[in-house]
Amino acid sequence: QLQLAESGGGSVQAGGSLRLTCAASGHTTSDSCMAWFRQGPGREREGVAFLNAVGDTSYADSVKGRFTISKDDAKNTLYLQITSLTPEDTAMYYCAVATRYLFDCRRREFDRWGQGTQVTVSS
Question: What's the pLDDT tens digit per position in 14-70?
């Protein structure tokens, strides 16, 4: 069964950068929608970056130009490069996979989730 494990979170100052990593095990993710979600204090969970099976990406408006999602199929690993961090980016970040879908990822139900990695940004 597919398992996901995030890492790379931490505490940074505004303007800083981080690279989050999601290591997948138990099943390949190369033929699935993949995404990063986040949930900040008192906020609903939101999808911030999506990647389909052929490498097309899409982003939430709030992170466009600052976040980059990518993957390494050989390593079965998903990444999220985050730059120009602001305190509003403070959240638990989760990677997720929609195992039954390859495309149109923003509309899909994601059925595999990691435990999350915390990102805290101070001003």
Answer: 999 999 999 999 888 888 999 999 999 999 999 999 999 999 999 999 999 999 999
Rounded to an integer, what distance in angstroms lies between the CA atom of residue 76 and that of residue 108? 21
Q: What is the Cα–Cα distance from 51 to 102, expressed in whole angstroms?
A: 9
C-alpha–C-alpha distance, residues 17 and 66, integer Å: 9
Please tell me the predicted confidence (pLDDT) of residue 118. 98
- Rounded CA-CA distance 112/5 in Å is 11
Residue 57: how many other CB atoms lie within 10 Å: 14
Q: Determine the Cα–Cα distance for residues 93 and 80; give it in Å rounded to an integer.
A: 10
